[in-house]
Write a structure and sequence with these properties.
Keywords: Membrane, Transmembrane, Transmembrane helix
Shape: rod-shaped
Radius of gyration: 31 Å
Distance between the termini: 101 Å
Structural class: mainly alpha
Helix content: over 70%
Number of strands: 0
Largest sheet: none
Length: 131
């Protein structure tokens, strides 16, 4: 078989319905792979946006004057910090945002057990009353 015969055979195959079908399958696989990748990226972005929405809500609860509401916010932030969608930087943000509140609560731990709340920490109002 000469080079010319090979080129002619290849050209005939390229013009055949078999080649067109093969090319269509390859194009469909490429399109499917791209669409699947795009869908995954979109889902990740939506989950991350939802995570941040929940974190924003929880941070707003932490700043509430009511101790019960603030504790709920801290608990939600703890759960969000341990979720699979919390990356390294999200954990840093949560730690930085909650540090003042956590240190505030630690500073009001009562020395006398009779002055402690249910969780062993004085409430903000109890700590304020002591001042």
């Amino acid at each position: 078989m000469t080079v010319e015969d090979f080129v002619n055979s290849a050209w005939e195959w390229i013009r055949s319905p078999g080649f067109a079908g093969s090319a269509a399958v390859v194009a469909a696989v490429i399109a499917f792979t791209t669409a699947r990748k795009d869908r995954r990226q979109k889902e990740r972005a939506e989950r991350k946006a939802q995570w941040w929405s929940r974190a924003e809500w929880a941070l707003n609860q932490v700043t509430d004057r009511d101790d019960f509401t603030a504790q709920i916010g801290l608990n939600v932030l703890d759960a969000l910090g341990n979720s699979e969608w919390a990356g390294e930087h999200e954990g840093d943000v949560i730690a930085a945002a909650t540090a003042p509140f956590l240190s505030e609560n630690q500073s009001v731990v009562a020395d006398n057990p009779s002055q402690m709340g249910d969780n062993g920490v004085k409430t903000r109002s109890e700590a304020h009353d002591d001042e």
